[in-house]
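User: Here's a chain of 344 residues. Predict its fold as tokens.
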Amino acid sequence: MKKISIIILIGLVSCNSEPKKRIDMAEKQLDIMFYNIENLFDTFDDEYTNDDDFLPEARKEWDDEKFYNKIDKIGEVILSVNKKGPLFIGMVEVENKYVLNQLLESRRLRDINYKFCHFDSPDKRGIDVALIYNKDYFTVNEKEPLVIHLPKQDKTRDILYVKGQIVGDDSEYHLFVNHWPSRREGTKKSEPKRIEVAIVLRNKIDEIQTKDDTAKIIVMGDFNDYPNNNSIKNYLKAKNSSNISSNELFNLAARLEDNDKGSYNYKGDWGMMDQMMVSKSMLDETKGKYSVNQKGLKIFDEDFIMYFDKRYNELKPNKTYGGDNYYGGYSDHLPIYIRLKTKK
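Assistant: Prediction complete.
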């Protein structure tokens, strides 16, 4: 029998592998969640990164009270997406292993057997990407950071790669967490950086699919580009068509973008910067134990994580900071999530 691989792109050093346990997966809601949590920094000065804004003596006055308030809010959102906790949580804008440990040991999440994969990235501010997973249901077999080499010694986040297996399934899952370079310098000037990251990611996908053209892939992350942008559509080859070829990706977020939905609001305009993409085989219920629905991606936009913007007369994500002004909210991005369907 041909071995089926499953890939999940997300887009972290610590990762724990655990022996498999016989657990009835039908009892588990197999949610895959992605969340840009907006600057989860500790309160300690790191001499190797530019984290000076997030210190007790800085203008933001970032202290333990604010830090643990944010930890609690993130846990609240996670359990609101799935009260048992999603199977996987791709997370970006985490400073280090310490903040991840504090999150998983917090009152909301400590009863879930969560572990995480994380590598320190070369990002100048020290923000990284991570994968949180329930170790009762998932075994990590391999992990690595995909390093991005930008011109002029510019630095950005690595792409996290994790390979493993869900309990009760012989298939391998390849997960990637992404946080592509920002648009702070302007869309056109910064676009080549995102294209460079797309090329690195595409090359890794090609490497996996060359070995197994039925590999199942899920890509998640904050791409700082939209589904129709050049980096996504042409370089990553993620499209909104069920007629994609076996080596292309289906962009689950494109439908939401086309319907003027969004996970991020910029000056009154909503857009899907946070996205998930899957390979063609991932849409096929007959291949492997798990699949996804083409229209299955959802944005978590419950009122409690929103605030009413009087200027634009609409609800927006209730963020932690606006400049140096502390709002005490959740994040400037909304989480997205999808549920794996189990083969009957």
